[in-house]
Amino acid sequence: MSTYIPPLRDIRFTLEEVVGLDQITALSGFEEATSETADSILTEAGHIAEGILSPLNRAGDQDGAALENGVVRTTPGWKQAWSTIVEGGWNGLPFSPEYGGMGLPNLFNHAVHEMWQAANMAFTLNPMLTQGAVNALALYGTEDQKAYYLPKMVTGEWTGTMNLTEPQAGSDLAAIRSKAVPDGDKFRLSGQKIFITYGDHDLAENIVHLVLARLPDAPAGVKGISLFVVPKILPSGIANDVKCVSLEHKLGIHGSPTAVMSFGDHGGALGELVGLPHRGLEYMFAMMNHARLAVGLQGLAIAERAYQQARAYARDRVQGKPVGWSAPGAAGIVHHPDVRRLLMTMKCQIEAMRGIHYTAAACVDLAHHHDDPNQRYAAQQRLEFLIPIAKGWCTEVGQAIASLGIQVHGGMGYIEETGAAQHLRDARITTIYEGTTAIQANDLINRKILRDKGVFARLLLGEISALAAELTAGEEPGLKSVGARLLEAIAAAGAVVDWLTGPAQDDPRLAAAAAVPVLELMGLVVGGQQVALAAKVALAAIKRGADHDGFYAAKLATARFYAEHLLPHASALQQAAISGAATVMNLEENLL
Asked: Is residue 213 part of a domain?
């Protein structure tokens, strides 16, 4: 497996020149978050990714977490790596100094986690989930709960989990059966939860579980779910009635302990109610939305890792004489046109995903810190629209890119020793956990497009149209092509929005059947917006003489490739959604 090299220049380009880091560092509360601070943070986080986490990635795959005599053991070297995170205060990067955090923008944290997820996805699931638990408690916990739990969780001395899924209740949380019975000012919980990431491990002295359960008087369905905080170790120092029953044997992310957790086998696990009764699902969504954006970031990260390895292999591997090759000596397969096509497909989509994710991360900061309430609202609206795309589309693309990485390797990619297969195995879960692609797609349609009858979707498409028209009217032939193809894709997306808010309303099954093609179409268009923005910025840099090594010229090339090879799929997705939805349910189940 090749060494992961943090793509710092690409990250800085997206942060500073595409998304606009200066608009974030100018927000109230971020006075210390200068571009120099960002540079220092990214550089050091890159060292951790390359020097500490990446070397442990293969070891985690081969010697994953194990349950031994009731104790979960992580991969050798992971304790030391976690100590590095804790000692450096890295887990607290986006959190308030009131609880020991650095108080820096979420955008910084997102960039850091891109590198760490790429370097070692299984390891970085731990800080990812812990940060989500911190967000939930910071928003909905009592002052006492925040004072007790947050300082240790912010530093990473304690880690956090979320416990939703049960054997009979996967995505249908209305079927949750775990119980919480009052016991003085506490509650005793009982029940079993499955698929709990880092549900137990040996990295931290305590694990803080956020658990969905029902009170005795709870109404049926999702309106009867409450949220509880249940520590592994009670304040008295005694172990709580919580244990890991088993660890799942998974296709990938072997280093991450995915636990089956049992609560209350010996009288009930002691916990406290978070917030108001029966509001648990609402509260858990604070953690879930963080997790969905973070999992979408895994799609970007694993794609970058797979691309780097495929690119290095293609440069070194000599196989046959490339078509049109006339230079003396052997040539790497990178000179074969189809290998170049594969690498360009990977590269341009990675740039599109990075733009989407850093835009979403910036929206988090704007929604929480902008002085103007109208700007906060606009940022929140954009963030909510982008989350299902950032999660659903980016993980599907990330998985596809990991597969392309194997294709570049040829037969050697199918051999475990090269490491290319691990990226594909690790990527496969990203389209499933924290809500499958279909769940993200239905969220995009029902809660984002149909909720306001397509108003924001059309506003966003209009914004992208203005950019595309600007490129089309410019003097650069390559960007004219980008603008023209983007306008065609926007027209396809607009037609789908009109169909969803019009004829599709006659039968709710139509929107559900078309959901994933719609998500793919919206992802393709919003990704096109990002590569077009990057190309516009790059052209300006070239014109002022700033392109000394071809970096900016490469942005023009990848944008044009994206436009000419990927955006044409928009019309097919439009047809699949509008014309194809009605045929999805045509075949009787016994004939499937």
From this structure: yes
Q: Please tell me whether residues 122 and 204 are part of one structural domain.
A: no
CATH number of the domain that 32 lies in? 1.10.540.10
Give the residue-averaged pLDDT of 221-226. 91
The answer to whether residues 12 and 154 belong to one domain is: yes
pLDDT of residue 326: 80
Question: Do 393 and 527 form a contact (C-beta atoms < 8 A)?
Answer: yes
Mean pLDDT taken over the chain: 96
Backbone angles phi, psi at 213, to 5 degrees: -155, 170
Catalytically active residues, by annotation: 434
Same domain? 64 vs 200: no
Task: Write out pLDDT tens, residues 148-192.
Answer: 999 999 999 999 999 999 998 777 777 799 999 999 999 999 999
Among candidates 109, 119, 114, 112, which has minimal Cα distance to 51?
Answer: 119
φ/ψ of residue 432, rounded to 5: -115, -55
DSSP assignment of 270-286: EEEEESSTT-HHHHHHH
Would you state the structure tokens that stand for residue 301, as one six-digit string?
């990260």
pLDDT tens string 38-55: 999 999 999 999 999 999
Residue 415 lies in a domain: no
Are 15 and 111 contacting, i.e. CB atoms less than 8 angstroms apart? yes
Return the residue matching tokens 């879930």: 288
pLDDT (tens digit per residue) in 541-556: 999 999 999 999 999 9
Q: Coil, strand, or helix at residue 263?
A: strand
The answer, yes or no, to whether residue 299 has pLDDT greater than 90, is yes
Final residue belonging to a domain, choices 234, 250, 279 = 279
Residue whose entry in the numeric block shows the structure tokens 């969803």: 500
β 258-263/226-231 pair status: unpaired
Phi, psi torsion values for 105, nearest 5 degrees: -60, 150
Q: How far apart are CA 256 and CA 206, in angstroms?
A: 17
> What DSSP element (H or E) covers 188?
strand 186-197
Residues 440 and 421: beta-carbon distance below 8 Å: no
Question: Do 22 and 151 have their domain in common?
Answer: yes
Same domain for 52 and 154, yes or no, is yes
**Whole-number Cα distances in Å, 228 to 4, 174, 367:** 39, 17, 27
Question: What does DSSP assign to residue 171?
Answer: S
Output the pLDDT for position 1. Answer: 65
Structural domains of the chain, count: 3
Pair (579, 476) in one structural domain:
yes
Region 553-578: mean pLDDT is 98
**How confident is the model over 470-477, as a mean pLDDT?**
93
> What region, left, alpha or beta, does residue 120 occupy, with left being phi > 0 and alpha being psi -120 to 50 degrees?
beta
Q: Domain of 43?
A: 8-158
Task: Work out the average pLDDT over 333-347.
Answer: 97
In the chain, % of residues over pLDDT 90: 92
d(CA 280, CA 213): 8
Domain finish residue from 247, 279, 311: 279
> Is there a single domain that holds both residue 493 and residue 572?
yes
Cβ(333)–Cβ(411) under 8 Å? no
State the pLDDT at residue 228: 98
Shared domain for 218 and 258, answered yes or no, is yes
Q: At what angle do helices 143-155 and 121-140 cross, to 10 degrees?
A: 160
Distance CA 474, CA 537 (A): 13
